[in-house]
Write a structure and sequence with these properties.
Oligomer: single chain
Strand order of the largest sheet: 3-2-1-4-5
Distance between the termini: 44 Å
Number of strands: 5
Strand content: 5-15%
Number of helices: 7
Order of helices and strands: EEHEHHEEHHHH
Largest sheet: 5 strands, mixed
Structural class: alpha/beta
Radius of gyration: 18 Å
């Protein structure tokens, strides 16, 4: 449900929820939910994309230490291909909120729609720049996914996954054509699907 909110007046026990990884051709979509502690403020929270990697890493640790509750969740490649990326993202957000050790009174979701939750929720367009708890969630989600994609680089060398994190860069698209898709590539996404169709699905 859409709610008119003054974000500076929202009471505590509000969970901020965000996702990372809707656009990549491979890997999971990762979400996080965070309930910040008003008694333990965290300076410098912002949209994770606007922070340096070093700053994100430092804030990742500080958020996990100071937040009242946090949870990182995901939907894997098979779920993305089965459900589509939107529904898989909603599922991962639902998992993040349900995984919190403290039940929030309200969940603020980055974007223009909300997953089905057991608690009241409201979408906030560009919420990671407006709501500190959403900014915190974006940082947890991005750092967690980036670390996972660095690990995938070692498992699937040659694609540059650690650098582009699965996004469809020229380097990634060239490697995909040359090497074929890995088990972590999303078969339902256009470039991967087109490659499979052109080879009869034998790659």
């Amino acid at each position: 449900m859409q709610m008119g909110l003054d974000f500076t007046l929202v009471e505590e026990l509000v969970a901020g929820v965000d996702e990372v990884g809707r656009g990549p051709l491979c890997g999971p979509v990762v979400t996080a939910a965070v309930i910040l502690d008003p008694a333990r403020p965290i300076k410098g929270l912002n949209d994770s994309k606007k922070l340096s990697e070093a700053r994100r890493e430092a804030l990742f640790e500080e958020i996990r230490e100071k937040a009242l509750a946090w949870c990182i969740a995901r939907a894997d490649v098979h779920e993305i291909d089965q459900l589509n990326i939107l529904h898989a993202t909603m599922l991962a957000m639902q998992r993040a909120v349900e995984g919190l050790s403290v039940t929030p009174k309200l969940a603020l979701i980055d974007g223009n729609r909300c997953p089905k939750l057991q608690v009241p929720s409201a979408p906030v367009v560009q919420g990671d720049a407006k709501v500190p708890a959403i900014a915190a969630a974006s940082i947890l989600a991005k750092v967690s996914r980036d670390r996972e994609m660095q690990e995938m680089e070692a498992l699937y060398p040659g694609y540059g996954i650690g650098g582009h994190k699965g996004y469809p860069t020229p380097v990634h698209l060239e490697a995909l054509k040359r090497l074929g898709p890995t088990p972590i590539h999303r078969r339902s996404f256009g470039p991967v699907r087109a490659l499979l169709e052109s080879t009869g699905g034998i790659l």
